[in-house]
Structure formats: C-alpha cells, structure tokens
C-alpha cells in the first residue's frame, strides 16, 4: 500500500463522480495492492458505459483505511470460502446420490449449483464491489459487512458441521 | 451487439439454474411428505420450514438480485444474479448441515 499523498484529491472535471488523485492517477494500479483491489481488473467492462470506463481511477478514491478494511474482510471472505468448500466436499457424495434421482441433466445442473456454494463469499465480494465501487466506500463496506453476516458458516458455532 | 447477445445467453443460463433449483425444491416439497407417510412418519415443523424455504428462497433471491442490480450494466447484473444463486446454494448446504434429513420426521 502506498503512502498518503500530501495533496487533497479533487473532483474530476471530465467524469463527474470521479476524484483524481494527482500523484497516483498516472501510475498504473498494481494488482497486489490489497485483497479488495485485486478483484477490480475482473470488473473490466466489455461495454463502455461512461460511469466506469476506468476502474483504476475509482480505486484511488478509497482511503488507506478503507483499503485495509477491504483487505481484512477479503481475508475473512476467503476463510468463509474455504470453510464452505470443506463442507461441500464432505457432503458431495450424499448430494450426488440425492440429485441422481432427478435425471442426468437436472442432476448435473443441481450438482453445478451445489458446487457454487463455496464460491458464494467470493462472488458476494466481487458483486458488492461491482455494485458499489463507484458509489463510495461507505455503501461498499456496508454490503461487505452484510455479506460477512449473511454468509457466516453457522454450523461452526452450532457444532452441526461434522 | 455480440456483447448484448452473450449477456442475454448467460442471463438465461443463470435463470435456468435458478429454475432447476426451484423445481428440485418443489419436487422435494411434494415427494418428501409422501415418502414420509409411506414410511409411517409425519414431517416435522422444521422439516416443513426447510422444504418451503427451498422453494421460496431462490425466488426471493432472484427477484431481489434483479431489483438491486437494475439499471446497472450487464456484467454487474449477471454477477449479482450469480452471487445470489451461490448464496442460495450456500444456505441450502448450511440447512443440510444444521438439519439432517432424519430431523424432518416426527
């Protein structure tokens, strides 16, 4: 993570809503900055809508504290994903037997959905980023925290995950 | 144009996965009580909750995802839809762990 620049960021005159950080706007974003920003290149839009044709500038609007927070929650989300993956593996055989009753096509699609579960935290993180990265850090953090509550692996606390 | 078509294709595919999930849950809702009755059991209250949730949750999440991501660009909408499907899957997995099928019966 880079140091804070002494100059205040200013509103961009070209694209309203964006702020241009004088020192950082010229440098290309390094994907290893933090967990959160590492996701951003995936959001590169195929269509060129004006609001986000340059996600790299958007990242620079986040304060260092915001980036640290995103990194911490990113790590928590990865931990969630790992826990979910372990449970999906544990239940995969039982699930395979259950879905086999509904035919090969439907069963295969149900298997696909079943294996989406471990990806849920990662997808939530990326989706929250895509939804809110141009709407301010507060909304993004709100959604990230909400996801951390919704996706919490409850059976860990209840002791059912055996 | 190509991007728009591919976005629709992906959207239809994800919607299809939602439908598969809903249909499978609906099948469970219909079949499980019959199987339980055939075995001389009744479905417990948590069992009914779980069977109903399996049908209701994908519908609710699908609608909420569509509403939340409306007026966004196509990739964002698809991403939110997919995240919703993964959320449904995770909740089902969670319920499976918390409430084993034997807990369905009285």
Structure characterization notes:
- The complex is a heterodimer of chains A (162) and B (106).
- Chain A has seven helices and two strands; from the N terminus they run E-E-H-H-H-H-H-H-H.
- With 162 residues, chain A is mainly α.
- Chain B contains three helices and no strands.
- In chain B, 81% of the residues lie in helices and 0% in strands.
Write the topology of this structure.
The complex is a heterodimer of chains A (162) and B (106).
Chain A lengths: L9 E2 L7 E2 L14 H4 L16 H5 L4 H37 L3 H11 L5 H13 L4 H14 L4 H4 L4
Antiparallel strand pairs in A: 1-2
Helix pairs in contact in A: 3-4, 3-5, 3-6, 5-6
Chain B lengths: L1 H37 L6 H24 L5 H25 L8
Helix pairs in contact in B: 1-2, 1-3, 2-3
The total strand number of chain A stands at: 2
Q: DSSP helix count of chain B?
A: 3
Helix percentage of chain B:
over 70%
Separation of the first and last Cα atoms of chain B: 56 Å
Strand content of chain B: under 5%
Radius of gyration of chain A using CA atoms only: 20 Å
Shape of chain B: elongated
Category from helices, strands and their pairing of chain A: mainly alpha
**Which series of helices and strands of chain A comes N to C?**
EEHHHHHHH
Oligomer: heterodimer
Number of strands of chain B: 0
Strand order in the largest sheet of chain A: 1-2
- Average pLDDT reading of chain B: 86
The low-confidence runs of chain A, each spanning 5 or more residues with pLDDT under 50, are 31-59
* β-strand amount of chain A: under 5%
Helix content of chain A: 40-55%
Number of helices of chain A: 7
Brief overview, please?
The complex is a heterodimer of chains A (162) and B (106). With 162 residues, chain A is mostly helical.
Task: List key phrases describing it.
heterodimer, A: mainly alpha, 7 helices, 2 strands, 54% helix, 2% strand, elongated, B: 106 residues, mainly alpha, 0% strand
